[in-house]
Each structure stands twice: as structure tokens, then as C-alpha cells.
Amino acid sequence: MFNNNLILKNPKIYIFCFSFKKDKDIEAIKKEARTYYQTYKSIDNRVDFKFISLEEELGDNVEKYEEQYDIYYWGMNFGGLLQKEKPDIIHIFADSLDGYYLFEKSYSPSSFVTLYTITGMVGLNKYDEGYLIHLRHAIDVGNLYLFVESTFVKEAFEQVGLQAHIMLPKLKNGLVKSQQTRSGDKCFTIGFASSPLSKDIWEDRGIYLLVSVAKQLSDYKFKLAWRYEGYQEMVDLCRESNVNNVEIHNGFLDMEKFYDDIDVMIAPYTSNNNNHSCPLSIVESVLYGIPVLVSEYVGLKDIITSYEIGVVSKSDSAEMVAKLKKIEENYNYYKLNADRYGKELFDINNFENNNYLKIYNELISQMPSPTLKEWQEELDANGKYLVMDRIGMAEYYNDSFIAQNYDVSRFSEFPMRTYDKLERMAVNLLIKRFSQKSFGENEILDIASGDGRILQALLGFGEITAVENSSFMIATSVKKLSGTVCYVKNDFFNFMTDKKYDIITVFRFIRHFNYNDRKILYKKLNDFLEEGGIILADFPNTSAETQLRSSLKWASFNVYDVFWHLFELINELNDNGFEILDHISVGEYLNAGKIPDQLALSRIVCFRKKQAVII
User: Minimal CA–CA distance to 79: which of 63, 95, 97, 57?
Assistant: First the structure.
């Protein structure tokens, strides 16, 4: 877990939320953040965890501690505290990304590695393109990791080029699940525990819809957990609507007792606004083995449908009534699924699936990187400029520039000579292991072939087509190779063919592009790949790259690069239709004194199209 620089001290991981004082442990975001803090602190004593809430009434760089909740309160300007304490990882929980701007104001003059969990359904407001470019760079180099709790929110972020990862909320499974099937003698009881914090969001939260459903199901019991605000108004609404089958439990509740007689939990949201992707009451009830009914505006709807732990309905009272009756008629089936999958999906102590603790362990060895503006300013001070995006790359790597500046000895001296040899050995091993065709029978496509370095490892495996946009590089490659290669002078973004390939190799290319452009690349790779074919590509390791650049200074690097941790790599390829077959780490022990010996510079990854799962 620890690199050479951290082995003598415990890493510091600080978990942040906003305004904990106001709602304490009742409001969902604070409860979720505090649950992670308490759990991780109790199981990993190698890390100094700290739980912090930002409070508007506190002054600059003021810190107060509340022992009852084991929480520190900081003011909204906290740069001095950060520079003093220097946490290794900051993890923020909030309903939207807006708070990241506040944190970056306090980060200056240095960056911090930041995870940002967005719990709301509207997590992204309209930002100008300049700020989006800044955020994309922060994600690309490992300063910012975005986590969301629904596919809907993930897609919204990725539409503007911000890569995000889905992480379902996890809770303590302190409740004792009931494995018993429902008795037919008991009044069917529907629970609701997503009460709004103010009356102006009652419509979005589905309060009026809930009362309408209760009125139509007068022989059912409705049990509501309320949080003080608007309690009397809710009582009045039920009375004025002639609804007599609703119990309202107000204030801080023992949720185990609350859930005890509930058959179905409901989240009748009528809009994406002012709502959480994964209502904690729904998550909690599934952990308790209770089936759920949610509207189409609940981000968790795809999980509920996939695992059949409940039913999804339109935000219409007639359909909700029908769907509740469907659950009642098939109750034991839905309850069995809730019992079966609740722990797998939502138990914080289930470490088999992806979780934040695993991700902390991956991130702990990396260094923060300069912002895009800071990097550009460093280059300017050294008489250089940053080369980035498709147009910039194409202009930079033109024939005249390459002819004048190509370093023929780049891979002929240590350590890059050894790195090159290891990389080509990895390519050879992975092809021999995963290629479905015999030696010499493959159709091979090599992308951005450069001087033919990787082509050397492909000779003999089959017929090779090399796509390269530089005539100079093609000429250099021809002189180097003894085998026959078909060269195509073209930018791969513009390259088109009807041909399918058994093996595609792409090295030192994917790393140069933002996520919008990478998605285009992955689509082309998928289109060109034969069924059963494989792709081999290199992906720089975030921990190694950030430490190396911190040592050599970022002004030594003027071409835009993207870095990946393993969890990011797995998610990115999966999101774009691929699955990893294997990967080989390359570059350990090659940069003594610059980065820890055990850190690989990159991973050589072999992947294929995702295969259909037959159940």
C-alpha cells in the first residue's frame, strides 16, 4: 500500500461533507460520509482518517472538534489548515460538483488528490468550456476522481467529457434481516423515509403523489419517517385529503424498529431535481430484506430492475397503485431477491466488490499534479508550449518537425532500452497466450506505428497493416524492419476500412487524448476488431508518472498525457465495450532515485470485446 516516501508515516485520508451541524446524522449525505469514516477508521489503523464538515459560520482556518460525533468543523476558507496538515487524499461527499471550486480555492498553491462523490441526480450544472477543460485535465492526471451513484448521472457527466465511476452507496448492515415470508393476516404496510428538508421540494420528492396513492389504497397502511421540517403541514395535508391510513413518525428514529413491520419501501420522486441518486432509505430497506417501489426518477432504478429487488413505476398514482399490488401478489419472490442481493450490493463490510478502501490503496502512492494552467505556465517559463488535443497533436507531429527533432537514440540507452525490450516481450507473450489463430495466420493492425518499434514484435504473427501519419516515421520504420508491412499514411481518427483484424496494437497513442476523443478511438477499435480478436495497448501508471514528473519537473514534459490506476482502466474499457484478458506491468526498478522501485511505469493490457454472459 505504501511507497518509499510514506513508509515512515501513516497516510492521511480526510473525508469531507458540508453543514453537518445543521442536520447531524439525519440527512443522507452526511450519514453516508460518516458511515464510511467510522467503518474505515475501525478496520485500517495504518491510515489517519479524519471526518470534517465545512460550516459557513466559522472563520477562515478555524477548526473546532465535537467529540460526540467525532467530527471536526472547519470554516469555508481552509487553505491554511490544509497546508499545515497536508492530507494525502481528500474525499468529498456532496450533492453536486459545485463544491469542488471551493476546495480548489483553498488548495492553492498546491494541489491535492481528491475523490468527489456526487449523490444528487442533478450533479452537474452548466460550466463554461474553459472550466470543463480544467476539470478534464484534473481527471486525466489523477487530481480528481468523480464518483456517482447512478447511470443517469454518469451519462450526464460523460456527455461533457467528464469521466465518472459508479459507486453504489454502502451502509452498515446492523439490522437483522427477517428471512420469513409475509403473513397474509397482516395489514400490508408501505414505508417512506425520504422526507424533504423544506416544503418547496415536496413536489419533487413525491409527497403529494404519495398521499394520492395512500388515498387510493385505503386498506393498506402507510408509515412515514419525517425529519421535523414541515411535520405539521404533512399532518394537515393528510387530514385535508381525508387520508386516514398514514402514520407519521417525526424526528430522530430507531430505524430498525421503523422497518420492523414494513413490507415495501417507496420512493415516489416526480423529478430529478432535489433528489438523491440512491435514496438511503431504499438502500437501507434492501439491506433489511424489504422489497422496494421507486419511480422512474430514482437513479437506482436500473439496479432494482436488474436484480428484481422491487419494481419501477412511472410517477403516476394509478401505475404506482398497480405496481404495489404486483409486489404484494409476488411478495415472496421480491423479498427473496432482496435477502439474496442486499448484502452483495450495499453492505459496507462486503469487500469483495469495488469499494473506496480499495481505491484509497491504489491512490496512496501517487503525487498531486499541477493544474492545467500551472503546467502551461511552467512550460512558458522554459520557452515551451503544451501540445494537446487532436489538432495540436496532428500539427506537432508533422513531417518537418519529426525530421528535425526525432531522437534516434531514445530507446537505445538505459533505462528506455530495457523498457522497450520488456514492452515488446509483453506483447509477444500476450499474443501467444490469447490469439485464437495460429502463428502467421493473423490479420494485424498497428496504430500510430512511429519508427516501427512495436512492429518488430509483430513480425511473423501474420499480415501487418501499419497506420502512421508521418512519412518520415514510415521511412524510418521501413529501414528497420526485415518483414513485409503494408503502410498507410493517415491519422487514425480519419482512417477507415471495411477490413476486420485479429490483432490490433496501439502504443503511445491513446494516452494523448481526452475522454471524448478516447471514446471515438474505442468505437473505431471495436468496429475494426474481428470477433474473438484481441487488442494490446499501453496505459501509463498514475502513481509512477506523477512521482516521476514531480522529480523531473513538469516543464520537462510538453505533450499531453493521461494516466490510469487499475480501477480506472478496468472501468474505462468496460464502459466502452471491452473486457480485460490480462495485463503485464512494465518498468519496475528502471528509475532509481526518481520513483519507488516497485512502481511500474505502465501496464501492457490485452483486451477483447465484451462477451455475452449466458445464464
Answer: 63
Could you give the strand order of the β-sheet that contains 292-295, starting from the edge strand earlier in sequence?
246-250, 221-226, 189-192, 264-267, 292-295, 310-313
This model's pTM is above 0.85: yes
CATH code of the domain occupying 12-167: 3.40.50.11930
β-sheet bridge partners, residue 239: none
Domain 189-345 annotated CATH 3.40.50.2000? yes
Q: Which CATH class is domain 372-609?
A: alpha beta
Beta strands in 29-188 (DSSP E): 48-54, 63-66, 71-74, 89-94, 114-118, 144-148, 164-166
Q: What does each C-alpha distance from 582 to 104, 425, 431, 544 come to in angstroms? A: 37, 14, 11, 20
Phi-psi region of 201 (alpha: psi -120 to 50; beta: other; left: phi over 0): alpha
Give the model confidence (pLDDT) of 337-385 as tens digits. 999 999 999 999 888 777 999 999 999 999 999 999 999 999 999 999 9
DSSP bridge pairs for 248: 224
Q: How far apart are CA 434 and CA 569, in angstroms?
A: 19
Cα 434 from Cα 607, distance rounded (Å): 9
DSSP line for 202-255: HHHHTHHHHHHHHHH-TTSEEEEEE-STTHHHHHHHHHHTT--SEEEEESS--H
Place of cell 519537473: 553
- In which residue ranges of the chain is CATH 3.40.50.150 found? 372-609
Q: What is the pLDDT of residues 251-305, one digit of tens each?
A: 888 888 999 999 999 999 999 998 889 999 999 999 999 999 999 999 999 999 9
Element housing 570 (H / E)? helix 566-575
Phi-psi region of 29 (alpha: psi -120 to 50; beta: other; left: phi over 0): alpha
